[in-house]
Amino acid sequence: MPLPKWLLIAKNEYRLRINRIRQIKSFFPFLVIALLAVYVAYIAPLIANLFIDDLLAFFLSQLALAMVPVLLFMIFFYLTILPITYTLQGMQTGQVEIFLAAPIKPSDVLLGEFLGVLPFYAIFITIIAGFFTAALTPLGLSLLQIFIIVLIFAIIFLSALWMGTVIAAVIRTRFAKSARGKDIGKALSLVIALPMVAIMYAIIGGGFTEALTDPGTNELTRLLLGFLPSSWGADIILDFAANPANIGIVGFETLIRITGLIVFFVSSLWIGTKLASRIYSIEPTNFNASKVKSDGFFYKTIRVFGGSGSFSNLLVSVFKDYTRRLENLSRLVYILGLLALINIFLMEESTDPGDALIMGIFLFSFLAVLVVGQIAMGGKESVFIHKKAPSGISRLIKARLIQSWLVAIPIGAIVTSISLLQVPFIDLFTLVGYTGLMAQLIAANVVLALGLALLRPEFSENSREQMMGLMVNAQIVLFLSIGIFIGAQAILNISFFYTFLLQSIVIWIIGFVVLQLGKSKLTNIE
Questions:
Q1: 239 with 136: CB under 8 angstroms?
Q2: How far apart are CA 311 and CA 303, in angstroms?
Q3: Using CA atoms, how far apart are residues 69 and 75, in angstroms rounded to an integer?
Q4: Using CA of residue 15, residue 16, residue 22, residue 24, what is the dihedral sign?
Q5: Sign of the C-alpha dihedral computed for residues 478, 479, 481 and 485 taken in this order
Q6: SS3 content of the chain, % helix, strand, coil (to 5)
Q7: What per-residue confidence (pLDDT) applies to 444?
Q8: How far apart are CA 509 and CA 524, in angstroms?
Q9: Which pLDDT belongs to residue 109?
């Protein structure tokens, strides 16, 4: 008897995921199961025991009544957007076209893709569920209660992943129809994570936890989240924590909530498969012709920075290519969102310019990497075109450097000025001096980020691969910036201003060295 088609697709999807580890793929499942068993039996209880007193006090407190639903909602939301983000970054329809060219139902495609990645999501589910059960076990829960808690996590997380898979399918077949749609999808892939970051920052330092101790806020939070399936599971966990080894007291409520979770998951699964025929509709890609207009005041101003001659045309062309890609603009929105969230939730009222600028010193290095992005936005072919021109590579690097400065420095200067204006009684000389110093530090970070982009050129159009390369460069620049700052403070024991100045000089020197090395590599690329 032949296997169901959705199962064949699931097996194919799984094999694609483990293709990069083909050396161990034969015993990969057994290795993962063994490691997870060790984690659940030993590591999770060991970690929970380190904080056992605080954890027990938390689960039995008034704060847990609203905090546990919030935590489960965050995990539910994260697992929902995870397939969406993955799809937005890839935005490929070729695999779906191959599936639909065969005599197979769209529902089989959707279900097969979901089941194919499910083993990898199950690892994450086991880690979270294992820690929760290890933290609750000292309360004296029965084996039945522990089993129900694990079942709750599985149902909630699988529901979130399935909903994310269905939404991702809608996005893939809608946005991938045109080049503009793909650009919008790539732009959304980064910005969509900001709400999760905002909630996390609010919990860490925004007074959100303290606000939940107020009975009114606590009750309002539970009311707002009470309609979500994650809250139904949270209520069961809290009931078990309050009544360990005595499921009879809350047996009826537990049965109703578990039934609701199962009905929700089965309903979402049924609705998703029924809508699959509408979701997967591949149509020819639309090609829209661009209408070229004369340069306005903005691009005429950009042309001034390029001077006279052909280089000004190259600079304007590079700048237009950067601003017309929504993915680049979304990276700016993301870093500005992070800066705003940090200032709202994590930064206390500053009484000194150093306190107001300390986070910007490190985050602006991240800004520089995101602004620079990949060196040649047109791919490797664009590099070869420039290589054919006299001094083409040098002119391309110069244009990308000026373009990145024109984007990063004004943003950094404005954010720095806003942060400094919050310092009481700051004078104009200090405001202008520190803003100028931050602007040249950002310029140095751009030089370093551009050099790293040249040393590790990424020509792929796939957003996932691009972001992985950018994150590596961002970590290098960030840790270098932190290392220089802390080293200057600890070894030289100098003031914040001179540490700031020394950091800028060192990054300028390292940046120019890395830029020259990167230029040589790009010149010799084949």
A1: no
A2: 9
A3: 10
A4: negative
A5: positive
A6: 80, 0, 20
A7: 92
A8: 23
A9: 78
**Whole-Å CA distances, 119 to 28, 34, 116, 461:** 11, 14, 7, 28
Q: Say whether pLDDT at 356 is over 80.
A: no
Q: What is the pLDDT of residue 510?
A: 92
204: Cβ contacts below 8 Å, ≥ 6 apart? 345, 346
Instruction: Give me the pLDDT at residue 447, please.
Output: 92
Element (H, E) at 356: helix 353-372
CB 440 within 8 A of CB 448: no
* Residue 484 near residue 507, CB atoms below 8 Å: yes
Compute the distance between CA of residue 48 and CA of residue 403 in angstroms, rounded to an integer: 50
Higher pLDDT, 482 or 88: 482
- State pLDDT tens for residues 137-158: 887 888 888 888 888 888 888 8
Please state the pTM of the whole predicted model.
0.72
Q: What is the pLDDT of residues 36-59, one digit of tens each?
A: 889 888 888 888 888 777 777 777
d(CA 22, CA 206): 46
Can you list the alpha helix ranges (DSSP code H) found in 60-105? 64-90, 94-101
165 vs 212: CA distance, rounded Å: 33
What are residue 492's DSSP bridge partners? none
For 391-444, write each residue's pLDDT tens digit: 778 888 888 888 889 888 998 888 888 888 878 878 888 888 888 888 998 999
Cα angle vertex 78, ends 76, 80, to 5°? Answer: 70
Nearest one of 87, 253, 92, 89 to 168, comparing CA atoms: 87
Question: Residue with structure tokens 């056992």?
Answer: 52
At residue 25, φ and ψ (nearest 5 deg) are -65, -25
What SS3 class is residue 178? strand
